[in-house]
Amino acid sequence: MADGQKIAITQVRSTSGRPGVHRRTLRALGFTKNQQTRIHTENAAIRGMLEQVKHLVEVRPVEE
Question: What is the pLDDT of residues 12-34, one digit of tens each?
């Protein structure tokens, strides 16, 4: 994936029992409930957040 490309991020696992930093990262990505999908433009900041919570989310490119 390249910078500037749109990506769809879906939360697939619950934050129950997870460290606070994981909960705050998902909140910063815009998630409020499990199974939600958010669209973001890929950049270094988003990639860093996704690396931190990669076990809780699923990422796929958006077809434009």
Answer: 999 999 999 999 999 999 999 99
- How many whole angstroms separate alpha carbon 24 and alpha carbon 46? 14
| pTM beyond cutoff 0.85 | yes
Compute CA 7 distance to the chain's CA centroid, rounded to the nearest angstrom.
9
For 21, the enclosing helix (H) or strand (E) is: helix 20-28
Choices 3.40.50.10490, 3.30.1390.20, 3.40.1190.20, 3.90.960.10: CATH for 6-61: 3.30.1390.20
Residues 7 and 36: beta-carbon distance below 8 Å? no
